[in-house]
Structures are given as structure tokens and as C-alpha cells.
Amino acid sequence: MTRIGCPAALLASIVTTCLACDAPLPTIPPDRAGQTSVSEAATSSVAATTSSLRRTSWPSSSASSRSETTNSPSVSRDAGSSTGSSATRGSVTSATESSATSMPEPSLDASFDSGACLHADAGATPPSCAPGGPGMTNCGACDESCCTTLLVPGGDYSRTYDLTDGGYPDFPDGGNATGEADPASVSSFRLDKYVVTVGRFRQFVEAWSQGTGYIPAPGSGKHTHLNGGNGLVDSAVMGGYEPGWVASDDTSVSPTSANLDCLRGYSTWTSLVEANENLPINCVEWQEAFAFCIWDGGFLPSEAEWEYAAAGGEEQREYPWGTAAPDNQYAIYGCDFPSGSGLCSGIANLPAVGTARRGAARWGHLDMAGEVYQWTLDWYAAYVDPCVDCAFASDGSNRVIRGGYFAYDGTYLLPSNRGNFPPSRVSGVGFRCARVP
Predict the structure, then answer these.
(1) Sign of the four-CA dihedral 262, 264, 268, 273
(2) pTM for the predicted model, two decimal places
């Protein structure tokens, strides 16, 4: 599958500027089964720049803006950031001891394309939603808890698959998946319905308390319901399991207002509670996303888990919602929101989480395509076969991102599309949490 546009080159290096993605661009070499590796695209040349952002461009920082990232996984931190030695460890119960707002299990054939709301059973409210208010208790069409979490029943699927009609730009029209490869088995788990909002992340920033508060305990954040508490099988280490939180990541947790404003005009964070509380948080380092999920009683989903939920498991869906050609009712992409112009003008093109409610995936999850990319647990690497509750968890330079981005074209909406990026700050990436079933 041919990738259209130049955002991958920009992801690989912020030195490269990409502002005019309407101009003819070189074809980005495919990764596996039409998936694109950012690192492989780093040498792609880029079209001449213009003064206006167009669709498919990952916005570039200017001299007056903060830089989104560096060329390596290491990121410069605020001078005032604290190490784990002065932080409070494990002040919140682990994922096995605290659960998110539980939801009734939907029928496998339930229709969520009209944004149906599922009302939560009584249960513990995660700390990110406990205070209540914007971005915490008013998500989606029914103003439900932004911590709503939905069961994903376990099963088998293929991580790599093609579409019989060729895919984008000739959008799928119901053809069956072909070229299936890289089989995986996923046990049941829960996945948050919504991407983490600014309002929810604000509660974590307060708990972190400028480096004097919460820091995860070493080894926390595992899928403790698997393999006798050891968690996911680590595909990078023979006979190993996911390590959970490692103390060396403590200093990477520094969600200051300055750091969270990684690209002016595209960063969603505000230092005070304002109108952005229901937008997806972005500019979050991978370590901060992982730390948030642990604090909130969960963990980051593995790449295999994330794709399984987006593809509808063994249904191997063309899009998370099925076969309908995408528009802004299904996914936020191509800078088409809200007017359909395709002109990128920053977060004006990025609506509240759950806005594209016809795009609900098989088990009810929203924004599994478009809106913002989402961090997963895995380091980026070639798939290891077979995969039974696995993750590439302990070796690599880039982390896997999934889901597409509001400024990218429809190519990136496909569930099997893989992206990767250093574990650093970028305005195009957010995250959601997974939890024990």
C-alpha cells in the first residue's frame, strides 16, 4: 500500500520541515504488508514549504515554538524536575486492587455506530475521574464518565492483513481480509472507551506535584491477570515477561506546563482549567503515559491488544467501525473537522474525545482511528510469531504508536497500520489505558 504525504519524514527528524504536503512527494517504502516504519522513512526528501498547513502534515515547530522532540529517545527535562529519590512511590493501589468504572458487557453483535451510551455499574472510580467535572464526567454523546472502560473478550486474530479492494484511497467496500499473517492470541482485558482527556491528566499532574508526589513503584503496571502475575510474555527475551515500571524512567516523568506545551497552537494542555478539558491530552512522554495508567489503576495496552480491539478481533475489520467510507462522523482525520476544508489550523481541527461517535469499534471504543495517535506498551520491532499475550517489552529505540492523527489522511486509519516514535513529546500522540478484565 502506498503511503501518501510527508508526515513520516517529519516524525523521524524535526530538522526536516514539512508544511506543504499538497506538493508531489516521494513514495515512502512500505514496512510489513503495507505498514510504514518511521525510521525507514527518515531519508525521504520533503516538498518545498509554504505558509499554510495542509492535510497530511505533521505540524513543525518554528523558531518561536518549543521543539516537539529530539532525534533520540532521550529528552531534555526541566531543570526543576525531580528524580525518584524524593518522590512518593506507589501511593495508589495497583491495577489488580483498583478498577475503573465497569461497564456491562455488550453483545458481540451490538451496534455502536450511533454512539449508544452504556451506563456504568457501581464500582470504584479511578482517581483521574474522581473529582468530577469537565473532561472527567462529561464525555461522549451522553455525558458519561470519561473513565468508562469496556470489556474486550479474548480471541485470536492476524496482526497483518490486507484488503481485497486495495484499501485507501479506494476505501474498502466490504471485501474480506487477505494476506493474513503474524497470528496472535489475546486474553480478555478492559480498554478505556475514551482517549485520556486534558481534564483527567490534570489530576495526575496534581498527584505528581512537581516531582515531590506520585511516582510508580518499580515493577508496577504489569498485566497481573496473566501468567500467574508475571504479565505479558516478553518477545524480546527468551522466557521473559514484561518488566513493568523501571526506576530509570523516574526522571522522564516531568509533566510541567512548559513541557506539555510542546508545540504552540497544537498542544492541548492549559495551565489553568479552560475550554480544553475534553480534548485529548498530547505532548506526553511515553513514560508519563505509562505512569498515568499505573496511577489510575491500569496499564498501557500492548500493541497486540490495541490492534485486536481496533480490528474487532477475528473480524479483521477494514476500519474499527466496519466498512463504511470514513468522514468526520466516523473519524477525525485530514484536518477536515469541523468544516471539511482540509486546512490545518491547530487544535481548532481537534474536537473533544468521542465526537466521531459513528466510528465506535466492535466493543464500543471511540477514536480508535484518527483524533490522535496512541502510545502502546511495545518497543517497535518486527513481529515475533506466534504471539500469545505477548509484547516486545524490553528492548528498542522507538515505541509503537497506533490509531492515526487528525492531520493525516485516511491511509493511517486502518487498524493494521503501525507507527513508531521515540518515547518523547509530540503533539500528534496521546494515549488510553487498559485494565484487568
Answers:
(1) positive
(2) 0.78
